[in-house]
């Protein structure tokens, strides 16, 4: 596999934990629908196109998960459930009326939460990145996805669970996130500095 967390110039392609926090802080000052998109991207590691395809029926408020249709798969009907915090679910319900749409008999659950094209979603993410002071090749929705993968492994999430959440077909793809310099690696290196 020729995939890396660094570009050809050696710049990282993932957001650090501090950058992820700054991103969400900046997103809170945006329109509510921009904020919810940013929350979903940061807290699920989904692809931008997967987030933009979400409808109310993909939000399982009782189970506490968002169900993504894996758009990168070459066939229909491939889904994955990613657990999210009660805060994310509450914001999605508050801004997008998820509960009301799910209870409506008129099929309100088939309306996309964000009726934007991919480029509009990309622009919104870039605007928030700029407001957060995050720049470089990692200041993208994909950088958020990579940052989610790195953060999950740093916090001890089993790699097989992360593979499921990210929708990777091969474990080797997910294992790349272990190449980031994480907290544990820094603690080990500190022993050399003393």
UniProtKB/TrEMBL annotation:
The Gene Ontology biological process terms listed for this entry are: DNA integration; DNA recombination
What subcellular locations does the record give? Cytoplasm
Asked if the Swiss-Prot or TrEMBL record annotates the protein with the keyword Ion transport, the reply is no
Q: What is this protein called?
A: Integrase family protein
| Example GO molecular function | DNA binding
| Domain Tyr recombinase, first and last residues per copy | 10-190
State the GO CC annotations: cytoplasm
Presence of keyword Lyase: no
InterPro entries, A to Z: DNA_brk_join_enz (IPR011010), Integrase-like_cat_sf (IPR013762), Integrase_catalytic (IPR002104), Tyrosine_recombinase_XerCD (IPR050090)
């Amino acid at each position: 596999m020729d995939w890396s967390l660094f570009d050809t110039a050696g710049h990282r392609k993932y957001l650090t934990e501090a950058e992820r926090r700054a991103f969400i802080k900046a997103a809170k000052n945006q329109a509510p629908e921009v904020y919810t998109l940013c929350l979903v991207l940061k807290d699920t590691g989904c692809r931008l196109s997967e987030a933009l395809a979400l409808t109310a029926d993909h939000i399982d408020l009782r189970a506490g998960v968002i169900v993504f249709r894996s758009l990168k798969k070459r066939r229909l009907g491939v889904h994955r459930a990613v657990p999210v915090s009660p805060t994310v679910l509450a914001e999605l319900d508050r801004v997008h009326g998820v509960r009301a749409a799910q209870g409506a008999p008129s099929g309100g659950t088939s309306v996309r939460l964000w009726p934007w094209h991919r480029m509009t979603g990309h622009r919104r993410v870039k605007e928030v990145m700029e407001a957060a002071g995050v720049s470089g090749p990692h200041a993208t929705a994909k950088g958020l996805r990579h940052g989610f993968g790195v953060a999950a492994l740093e916090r001890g999430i089993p790699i097989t669970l992360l593979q499921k959440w990210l929708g990777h077909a091969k474990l080797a793809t997910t294992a790349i996130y272990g190449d980031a310099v994480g907290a544990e690696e820094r603690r080990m290196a500190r022993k050399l500095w003393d």
